[in-house]
Amino acid sequence: MQITTIGLDIAKNVFQLHGIDAEGRVILRRKVRRDQLLALLSGFDPCLIGIEACATAHHWARQLEALGHEVRLMPPVYVKAYVKRNKNDAADAEAICEAVTRPTMRYVPIKSVDVQSVLMLHRARHLLVRQRTAQVSALRAHLAEFGIIAPKGRGHVRELAEALDNDDTPLPGLARQTLRLLVGMIDALSEQIGKIEAEMMAWHRATAASRRLETIPGIGFITASALAATVSDASVFRSGRQFAAWLGLVPKQNSSGGKERMGGISKMGDRYVRQLLVIGATAVIRFSRNKPTALTSWVNRLLDKKPARLVSVALANKMARIAWAVMVREENYRLVPVSA
Hints:
The chain is of the alpha/beta class. Helices cover 52% and strands 11% of the residues. It contains 13 helices and seven strands. Helix 9 runs antiparallel to helix 11 (271-286) and helix 10 crosses helix 13 (308-329). The termini are far apart. The model has no long low-confidence stretch (mean pLDDT 91).
């Protein structure tokens, strides 16, 4: 009997395999250690291997494809429905094996090492920005205890740093010494963020898809490079709406008995890309009255009857659909004048 399909439940050290033949009979249930997996699967004839799209999944998918196997990654939330009764490694592997054979299953494209490197830049920058924000907030809060404040915005942090160097500032010596450490950390984080953004800009300029995405209002080089790296093939989505739904920018449904109930957005998919699109949409709304176009006219009509936060999410949804069209058609976004 030949194994045709394997469900592989990956972990840090011990992996679980569940294999079936062409008729669905179970012929393999086995645990293997991490360093034994490739040696074991290299002895099998090429077959279909299903893996949940989780941490290290893309690495193992590339390794198994190099052995000649067909590998498909699936969102864990879609595999969950196939788990029978108690959850354990064996049950998870069996569920993966069953889910990968379903004709309606949706799959996650396997990312290359270059794409993952670009996404690593984004994750590292996001982490450093959050750390810098925390340091700035701490600096503001500590100085406020001594009556020293500055206007909102990171651009005014330098005023607080200059206040530390001013001998006339009413600060105890110990507090001044401690707060200078925070200023040094903020400067170091800003320097590291600048280096990462320079690498992102270089990749953006060398990638045609990323440059095309930057032509969309509200999308800069950071969002464009994140979209281009996250979605290597936009044609896997049937429409722009499906792409927006994949990013979690469509209403969550709880409908039954013919009654439709729509809630807030589903927030499924890539949280980081969704956040970037909403931030970009907020910037478009802020300057929508200064640049009259068909898009900003639509935004202003919506602002007349809806809250600004709701409009920013609606615009992010529209931007996602436009981004899908730009990636699929491989064309720049064409700005439509308001008179059109």
